[in-house]
Amino acid sequence: MKNLSFTFLLSFLFFVTSAQSIKDYRIKNNNNSADRTMMLDILRAKMYETHKNEFVFVVNHLKVGNNYAWFKGEVQRKDGGSIRLGDGEDCCHVEALLKKSNGKWYIVESAAFSTDLWYDGIENRYPKAPYGIFN
Predict the structure, then answer these.
(1) Residue 30 confidence (pLDDT)
(2) CB of 29 within 8 A of CB of 23?
């Protein structure tokens, strides 16, 4: 009985610490400012490469855990102009999975203006990314 109680306690503590390891970076604050800015800047740079415009984001979802981050947001041109889309593009959303390695964030997968749910099943493709970052 003692071993069962100890096992239950360890399981409970693992569950609680795992749940607490997911951080919500949707709103910028002093604790997340550096990481949040780095993530959005590299996503902004990638979008500049493909769309040749400077963008700002409305962050709808940005959760971080176990050195992974899941971002979903809306895109606006920095100059306030309209976004010109190519065939097969749907305005004005972007999603990205990012990973932190050696103190820097990198884009693992991302898509802007997609017309499909390209990220369907992404939590299965990256099992080390905590499921909680996607919710």
Answers:
(1) 97
(2) no
